[in-house]
Amino acid sequence: MTNKLEIKDILGKLGPLLALIALGIVLTISNTNFLVINNIMNILRQTAVNGLISAGMLVVLITAGIDLSVGANAILCACMMGMMMEKFNVSNPIILILGCLLTGMAVGCINGLLLTKLRLPHPFVSTLGMKNVLCGLALLVVATKTVGNFPSAVTWLGSSNIFQSTNFAGIPVCFLVLLVFFIGFHLFLNKTAFGRTIYCVGGNPEATRLSGINTDHVLIIVYSLSGFMCAIAGLVIVGRSGVANPSSAITPYDTDAIAACIIGGASFSGGKGTVWGTLIGVLIISTIRNGLTLLNAASDIQYVVIGLVIIVSAFIDVTRSLMETKTRRLAAK
Amino acid sequence: MKKVLALVIAMIMMVTFIACEGSSTKKTNDEITIGVILKTLSSEYWGYVAAGVKAAEKDFGVKVNLQGPASETSYDEQNNMIETTLSTNDLDALVVAPLQPESIAFVLGNTQIPILFVDTDAEFSNKTAYIGTGNYEAAYLGGEYAAKQKGKGAIAVVIAGVQGNTNSYEREKGYIDALEAKGVKVASVQYAEATTDKATNIMENMLTSLKNNVDIVCCVNDDMAAGAANACKQAGVEGVTIVGFDGIQTGVKNVMNGVVSASVAQSPYNMGYQAVENAVKAVKGEEVEKVIKTGVSIITSENAKDYLAELKSVLK
């Protein structure tokens, strides 16, 4: 009995990975341009921004929260660098990057404070409000102009590749950085006391508070962390496009990140979700987008496919946990 | 249990693949493949550009990969599409309508195949050609038309699209420069995110703040012109010269019905057709002009009927 459960458990964990592999096989059969090394590198490159944002979003989702301000935050961070360059003639990349990171963390911190100190009913409210504020600020700081010509040290993270040669586009640095962050997040969430506290806050905030943990403190740090990841994503966005475009603050980065976390097994009710599941989630989304582009499918089909994947993976997750409770109840009898 | 997920996704992809197979092009004897990435495929205006592209594909017997992101603010999505398309092996030329002209050179990098821009021009050292009119010039003509109707000393407002978007900014600037050059006072510029209902709200507010004292409304698309017309009608303000932009079917019909005064049309079908035509020339090594103007026409009650017939024939 226990043995069977373990197999089920492993299958459950590998589910998204199997889905990704199946997706890869289907795309390889249907398009000769898919399984080409340079295209695989494209997928990794296109995964980076969503992956970085998703890592922060995952931690927020584990606390049963949500952060809708991620996309606007990332763009604001990019635009802050643009403003520093245009208005204050700062060309030192270290100062620019520091400004970018501080902006992101400050915004995240404000999100946390709004939730805990102002006692706004749900992070949906505070972060939705902040999303709009940040969209406006992004336009404001650069006076609605798109800013380009960033120093190469600023665009390095998003634009450089290693082992580049004539026939090989190289491994994108932004994806390697993403992997480093994911390993860091994995260790942080699973091997540190604070990381486990985050799961506790999501699982049962009242019990966590009563056991002597300052939940407000945990939440503020969690939202600041999400803000920090947005800043890194903003840096990659500048590197990928070469510009900071304030009007892209309305791009739905938030829903893509939430989708990736949900596909990877996170839940809105908190206490659940793993870093590796999320990584598979972001890879599934960018593989679908990349594959459908190669297949010449228009955005109507892309929307439908990604929407269905979200619904199906959440449904499977719900069914699995229902079955688990059932087995547990049967075993208890 | 999640095995089922794998199966389901596989099935979805299969269905999608079959669906795409139906709409994609037949292989021709000709070996030329041209990538075309428009600003979006989900709007009527871009539907005309796409129709031109498809007509040229058929006429010249080449293979065209036609794509476009979900909306005209999906900047990252377009950049991803460009990257993905450039890495396919059999691509001979790429036609792009850049959403973010400032970043296009960065995304294209040191691409060696012919690159053509359509609708919106951009800086790029290896550029083969630009096919289009330029939003600024087209809007300038629209502004001049409106100023001619009302004369010197008239009061105008401009309803623009998404603040910070290059396209919207150029049209806005074209209108303002033309109006001011003709002695018209531009009292206010507001942003309606390219939607009809927001344009109605904004127009209502502007009428209130200007005490209904508005002679000219210049909008950067047809939907917003319709919205502005709604607001004027409800406020009982008559005789306002309302100018739209794009010349899509509903816009032209509004001109015919007298709801709006004019629409600036940039002949999108010709843009699409000529872009592919010149891309083929470039691949074959023939000479291509650096700038190919596709022309602007101001659609008024006089020529609206003919233009509508032209649009309908194109979409067949």
From TrEMBL, chain A:
CDD domains: TM_PBP1_transp_AraH_like. The chain crosses the membrane at residues 17-37, 58-83, 95-116, 128-148, 168-189, 218-238, 301-319. Keywords: Cell inner membrane, Cell membrane, Membrane, Transmembrane, Transmembrane helix, Transport. Signal peptide: none annotated. Pfam families: BPD_transp_2. InterPro entries: ABC_transp_permease. It comes from the Bacteria. It is found in: Cell membrane. It is a multi-pass membrane protein. This is ABC transporter permease. GO terms for molecular function: transmembrane transporter activity. GO terms for cellular component: plasma membrane.
Automatic annotation (TrEMBL), chain B:
The keyword DNA-binding does not apply. It is found in: Cell envelope. InterPro entries: Peripla_BP_I (IPR028082), SBP_2_dom (IPR025997). One of its GO terms (cellular component) is cell envelope. The keyword Signal applies. It holds the Pfam family Peripla_BP_4. GO terms for molecular function: carbohydrate binding. Keywords: Signal. It comes from the Bacteria. Residues 1-19 form the signal peptide. Residues 34-287 form the Periplasmic binding protein domain. Belongs to the bacterial solute-binding protein 2 family. This is Sugar ABC transporter substrate-binding protein. It comes from Anaerosacchariphilus polymeriproducens. The lineage of its organism: Bacteria, Bacillati, Bacillota, Clostridia, Lachnospirales.
